[in-house]
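quick one before i forget lol
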Amino acid sequence: MASASSSSARHLFDDSKKRLCARVGVNVNNLGSVARQIVRGSKTNEIMHQTLKNFTQVDVVSDYSNQNLQKMTLILQHVGYQYDVMQDSVNHLDYLKEQVTAMER
């Protein structure tokens, strides 16, 4: 009986060993898949980092453009005010010319 149980134990051990090897083989294949996913994931992180960096740069440029547009709007208002003052001065000069002409008669 002892030999039957030892051969049975040995057979069970060999069977367990084969199953373990098969599982390790499957896990090694999965490990390659996991490694590829990690590489893809790291590339994804790099792409996301670069995208975020580009977005931040665009956001900063957009802010500067908005500030410049506001400055140009203010400059345009001031030029309009100066034009109105110059137009009033030209109208005033016409009035003065008429007065000088009237005084010369």
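fyi The chain has a mean pLDDT of 79.
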